[in-house]
Predict the structure.
Amino acid sequence: MNHELPAIIQGGMGVGVSGWRLARTVSQAGQLGVVSGTGLDVVFTRRLQLGDPGGHVRRALEMFPIREVAERILDRYFVPGGKRADQSFRAKPMLAVNPTRLGEELLVAANFVEIYLAKEGHDGQVGINYLEKIQLPTVPSLYGAMLAGVDWVLMGAGIPKSIPGLIDRLSRGEAATLKLNVTGGKADEEYGTTFDPNAFCGGKALPVPRPKFVAIVSSATLATMLARRSEGRVDGFIVELSQAGGHNAPPRGELRLNELGEPIYGPRDNPDLETIRGIGLPFWLAGGFASASGLAQALLAGAAGVQIGTAFAYCDESDLDHELKEQVLKASLADDARVFTDPVASPTGFPFKVVQLEGTLSERNRYEKRKRVCDLGYLRQAYRTEDGTIGWRCSAEPEDDFVRKGGAIEDTVGRKCLCNALLGNIGLGQVVADGSTEKPLVTSGDDVATIARFLPPDGLTYSALDVINRILPDIVPTSIADDEVPTVFETEEILAR
């Protein structure tokens, strides 16, 4: 098997958009296919409740090494033939510092299933993407992915300094504790959530290989800190520009907005590639590089390649809802596809890129009509209560609840429930009390404006291989002299795309 570094890393997008089908296709093509690890336990249980079309989830569960865990999950969530269209999905346990046995089993099994299916039938490499800000499911999720032989772990949306060390401990079968970020916590207090592979496996942890760890960063400062001070080995970086989709790092300095209300990024937000290259670890550039010239520019800047998200999000193999794909591709063809970098939509506090689409929560009236509810809880924030215990709040939950828990009312303005909306993007939206279904909210990079360039002249669909073949030229530079490497972005060519 060829273990050379990939020229293309496929982005781990949204909740379930980067599913196993897409990752498998990209990996079979010799690049790095990546599944999204966000919310996999709820994606997993809802697929089972839809009857598991094609039998893929059940086929993977047949290979799960702890038989009784797989059987318990199937008994609880599998609905032969699928639930009624007007019936709500059965809930799963909320994430917790000390999870229930079922909650832990769902996290481990869901991550195992997604990686197993992505790796099935080929010897290519597969990665999984997590968000650092979503902490409670991280450790059992990692173990589930590692049980299935995941090759790479990618993490951003925070400072994942402790993650390489957790991966090391899990690979040795040791209990791993992730320290939690708790608002209002005192200096002499520590909070954490622990997963013990030995206890989970009934006394003796199953052996798992150690995957590579890649941190997603937007600055040389963060990359340097992670390379020097992480608890364990960092194997590389993905360097995201502000054009990239999903969550963006906030601009440095005081937040300023343009006339549309979007954060303004300036020269201080441009990554210093000379410093990043000097760290000595491979890195990939992300944000508007889905072209042969984009890849060439990245290679000439010293990168090992590029990460591509938006171009793959709208290909046949992604799990984004078909009607949403078609709606966006038609808008792009008409030169009418627009992305708004929303400074407040995400409860994480990070700017979040939202495609402006009819019928989604990007429309103000649909957002205002939605009844606020926090029934999934992935983006809740931990805070210290008066008695020193941990409480949980989300700025997208009902305003009164958030304020009662010590939150500021102004922090609720414009916040959107990404947990439910992103599930709506992949056809897994919850049926709510009035019989309606949770509306989607599509996120993409700025590149969505020209995404129709991947379409054939007479069609409205394209494949993941179409993307790869368009980006990879026949011959690409693999090495350059030191004096040919830009010290920083010397022109606006990359940033202007």
Notes: The chain has a mean pLDDT of 91. Residues 101-119 form the longest helix (19 residues). The longest strand covers residues 126-131.
